[in-house]
Amino acid sequence: MPSLSSRMMPSILTALGYRRRFASAQATAELVEARRLRPRPYGPPRLLPRGVGVSVDQDRGWPLYEVVGYGAVAHRRIVYIHGGAWINQISLPHWQLVAELAAATGSRVLVPIYPLAPQGTAATVVPQVADLLKRLAAKYGAENVSVVGDSAGGQIALAAALLLRDAHVVLAHTVLISPALDLSLGNPSIDSVEPNDKRPVRPGLLAAADLWRDGLALDDPIASPLFGEMAGLGPLAVFAGTRDITHPDCELLVSKARTAGVPTVFHEAPGMVHGFPLLPIPEGRQARRIMARLLRGGQDILAAPGSVPPAD
Fold first, then answer.
1. What's the order of all strands across the beta sheet hosting 62-69?
2. Quick one: which of 86, 122, 186, 208 has the fewest CB in 10 Å?
3. Across residues 28-48, what is the average pLDDT?
4. Which residue among 3, 107, 146, 151 is the active-site one?
């Protein structure tokens, strides 16, 4: 049974106005203009958990942060791609997840600050993320490099992993949190889920997706990785709640990946909304523990797919 705090979360998200920002194409256009006029800061918070350090460099024009936990394994790297509907900057919950993964996995977590739409597009950002992952794999071994992405970042992460697969580079793990998989949002099952997810809604999301794909066909795997061929992809983990607008497409992805022989686990959380592993609720904490265990090399998790265990 969902925890009390998770049952309260939809009302909290409604009060915070998440749905209003995506209620219409006009609302999304106004948000994009507001972000252009007054860009949001992207740096990590001043206070990180004890034993976690942070540095920043430039990678081919992008700020690239590195977050490191105490006792980090020399060669283990995670690239984290943040969500935000391609138009919102990385925020505190993303940084908290990054710091937790760095501390819990003994990995160096790299966070590229990619350009947002409309300046950044799928055709320009996805290949550069793939190139970063490819360079890390060449230096440290692909078996030591993983990619994690949430929401819009999940779209980028999976599309980049597919590009790497085409280049015969197989990552250690691809971990997706409520990923955007089909930018048409045309899955008819979304109709019954959308009213229960108090964060993104289709009118504004479609407008943001159109800016991001910038003319790419809706079935181009660079924009909509659900349409890509999954065979040959490395181990895949997907986290989504049953009240999540991305849940229907996550089901399709998991089925398609398993049919293609990809080691896949689906952490399907009953009653949870979009991006629940980033939320301060028991189910989110449990999902983060599972994620960290997997990224440390817990292959037994892949051998036993199923729902996220009950929250503590």
1. 52-59, 62-69, 108-112, 77-81, 145-150, 173-177, 236-241, 264-269
2. 186
3. 92
4. 151
